[in-house]
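= Paired protein data =
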Amino acid sequence: MDRRTFLCKGTAALLVVPALKSHGFAARPPKPAWLLELIRLNDQQIGQLKAYRVTDPNHPAYGGLKDGDDIPTPQASADYVRRIACAVASPESTFYRSKELLQEAGLATRYLLKIQHSDGTVDLLSTNFHSTPDTGFIVKRLAPAYRLLSRTGTPEAEKVMADLKTFLLKAGEALSVGGIHTPNHRWVVSAALARLQELWPNPRYVARIDEWLAEKIDIDADGQYNERSTLIYSPLTNRLLITIARALKRPELLEPVRKNLSMMLYYVHPNGEVVSEASGRQDKALVGTMEGYFYPYRYMAIHDQDGAMAAQARMIEQTLLPRTVGFLDYLLDDTSVWQELPAAKPLPVNYVREFPHSGLTRVRRDRWDSTLLSANPVFMTFHKGEAVLQGIRVAASFFGKGQFQADQVVRNGDAWVMTRSLEGPYYQPFGIGSIPGPGDGDWEKMPREQRKQSEVQTMQTTVTLRETGSGMEARIQITGTERVPVALELIFRPGGTFAGVTKHPSRDNAWLLSGESGSFTSGKDTITFGPGLALHRGVVLRGALPPMDAPTVYLTGFTPFDHTIRLS
């Protein structure tokens, strides 16, 4: 924004203060530069979303918005209303008090009323129908939109607000009685009801919130919520609990937010990505960043005057600000976050932290870090700037069940140890006169566990992980039955280049390491790994997980297997 535009918009902002006061709003503090940038980005995205509007008056979804699959949905339509509310309520927006946008918001709201069920619910067309939680997701964003629209003081906004009120109050009936099916839905419904309580107080809203809160917040001693969803549902739950705490004046609900945000300081890779491998939801092992935590970190930094949380909020602002535009309604509605952040404390960049409830250990040394995982076939990752080893897996072709996965990571001095033991038995006949079942030869009707076992084969796998001076090492030992083929996978993120490895002659995205070392480079960063081992080319073993769609280096051998791979 050039100086002249800034001055003109600043003057416009001053002129509307009397108008805001006349509608019952006190003058607000000036908006910080980062918020002005988000308002500009929101304007830009509104222009892009116009292409998804259903503009044919004869179309059954007239006024609504389509999603990326060309399906009109309540979610896309409600989000458009929310974005418009952010723009038309902001004097700094090019769409401030826009009659055209308010008409479009009105059409979208009438579409929402049209598809709202008689019980007050809406659908999530990809999976959930007559869905209370998905109604809650919409209400918790449309209620702040209603508040923002009320700041414009225009007849066009009042028309939209009248229809929005009808939709929201009808939805409130569903939220007061409807059920849910995942842990975070309790807080979605409660936050939506808390938003309605702020606008139209109703004892039924608070009673229902209290029913859900009586179940207690699902946070463990590590500071992690039940779903362990670090990219989606943990930041969402933080925003929801802050919403309920503010609306109902219940500061005790900020304690789980505080615990989760403190834990998340140790869940960030050096390149700003989030550790997601332990998630129990759809974001498991996905690549993502911290933008969803911006409002919670900023809110709690100011509320607690916490320097570490202030530092994380600044980091998100400096590196990810455009990605936070989807939370503009939170940031406009809650003016407390417009304040200056407290002085920052250094963020943790050198540490070893164990999170036993999540089955996860984090090792970080400034520019590189490693995550150790139990209950996961990927037992270790290694990040070094932009060069990313997404995971190490090991499997043996042992009776179709040789994919290694340990139940726990055990600390043993300077090492972390994972173990697994398997058996591969053969079975004897029952014997004449003792055959169970109808005796018709059906194998499934003759319980295998009642047969005598013989020729029992065994396999014991031990994975020992240690920090070295410049990275990590993993020693894989497999004993028991001999001559079992083994394949160790080093799975890298697409986009980099290899050196020191040999392309597999018949497998796509597969390389073999037979020399002392190989390397993977992405951008300015390089991971070195070795020594190699390539005693056979069987890299996709029977009973192992299928290869990932990623460049993978294999080390191969036979049992007894004892090999140490070092990463730096």
Summary: Confidence is low (pLDDT under 50) at residues 1-25.
